[in-house]
Amino acid sequence: MTQPIAILGMGQLGWMLSRAGERIGASVQLLDPDAPEQPGPNTLISVESEHWPDNPGTRQLRAHPGWQNPNALDILPNRIQQKTVLDELQLPTAPWCRPKDDDQAKDLHQTLGPDFLLKRARGGYDGRGQLRVKASEATPLPDWKTEAIAESAIGFDTEVSLVGARGRDGRCVFYPLTENYHRQGVLTVSLSQPTRFSALQRTAETMLTKLMDHLDYVGLMAMECFLVGDKLLINEIAPRVHNSGHWTQEGATICQFELHLRALLGWPMPQPETRGTTAMVNLLGMEHQQEWLAVTGARLYWYNKAHRPGRKMGHINLQHPEPQRIADWLRELPLPADYDESRAWALERLSFEG
Ligand code: AMP
Fold first, then answer.
1. Which phi-psi region, left, alpha or beta, contains residue 307 (left: φ > 0; alpha: ψ -120 to 50)?
2. Mind listing the pLDDT tens digit for each residue in 92-116?
3. I need a labelling partner for 215 at 20 to 30 A (CA). Which of 4, 45, 239, 296 fits?
4. Cβ of 151 below 6 Å from ligand 1
5. pTM score
6. Which residues contact residue 86 at a Cβ distance below 8 angstroms, ignoring those fewer than 6 apart?
7. What's the DSSP call for residue 93?
8. What tens digit of pLDDT does each residue of 145-154 get?
């Protein structure tokens, strides 16, 4: 009998995991983080997010014999511990330090340069819980500085992420590096272009393998990096399926959600093959629009969540063997004006492919 899987979390990542599971015959149950049901003793428990509320139910899950990846989930959600483990493994990240009680901005500027970010150790993501501190603006440091890391602002050329999975036997498979565009700290567009970053692929894979091996990790993990010249600096590690891997639903023979489940179950994990170029557009803070569906190539995933400004409401994947078709569809896609820069960014890259 197939071992059941429970996912802590009922958001879009949980939904897409359970949908992928249904297709391949894996049983996936979603657990409400506010009052999780306790799964049977034979169940494997994974998460859709590394941040969950602390309550008696989640504490009980953490102690369940089927709780997966205790090392990664104890260490990585805390930025101080995440940065520390990356340093120990000599994996390059943006220069950082822990602000002390009596540190003023000028003390940190001395260590980190004229522009740094304070990032809360816990709970912050997508640019939340972050403050940019510029020497020119004399910003006072907030009270929470001692529960944060301070990190140099990086003048990167672009942002890329590596998504891959490690199986129970320690074997890893990866997707090609994906290029990501963020608006105010939140991903708007991802592009997977087959050969664009092939020169960096091996290095990136070696970096993430080292971390997954160290944590004895099983399942899918994402490594977000800044690219500076030909050097990768890790920005953040996510021990879960990741927004920058959504393109794999149309762009790869095995999508990231299925790959995570296969890894957990110890099922076959051949190297996924990719289908040329794929673009993914996040639908942030938008109401549902049937006009998106007038674009032939638009594969819409709508999360059916209550509308809030800026909230991730859905995404659209665009995949075609000819990148110019993707560019045409992207031009046709009805998007608000604050997507102009993100769209122009993607169209410029697609135009290089001819
Ligand atoms: P995070 O929540 O840490 O993933 O940050 C979200 C986004 O903010 C990143 O993808 C970058 O676009 C930007 N960002 C975060 N940290 C830095 C940094 N040290 N230097 C420059 N940009 C950053």
1. beta
2. 999 999 999 999 999 999 999 999 9
3. 4
4. yes
5. 0.96
6. 93, 211, 234, 237
7. B
8. 999 999 999 9
